[in-house]
Prior knowledge:
With about 140 residues, the protein is of the alpha+beta class. It has helices at about 40-60, 100-115, 120-125; strands at about 5-10, 10-15, 20-25, 70-80, 85-95, 130-135. Pfam families: OsmC.
Amino acid sequence: MECSVKWIGDAAFVAETGSGHLVAMDGAPEAGGRNLAPRPMEMLLAGAGGCSAFDVVLILKRGRHPVRDCEVRLSAVRAETDPKVFTHIHFHFVVSGKGLKAEAVERAVKLSAEKYCSASIMLGKSAEITHDYEVVDSD
């Protein structure tokens, strides 16, 4: 996997991923940024959420469970001193489907957390990671 990141002025950068996609990043105004794009640490958090949500949906679909929607809301706490690593990350999944069983969602979340989501497992080396979920019955 490869990526390049180019400074484009002030505290703004553009990353080009190995698959050819562009992602803008910017700093907070107090850090010289213009607040035009996500911060790099926000990108890390979003990446972990995307990785885990992808796993949960794929596991449920492969198990032929009637998943219709999946959202994961993440909240993180960072250290107060440099390096300001994540010290705690909480994943809250909201998964919906008609007749979707809570046990299936719980299993999918657990498999992602313990086996498949390389992003959250890697972040778990420095942060306490917690998960919970809710199941919404939908048509």
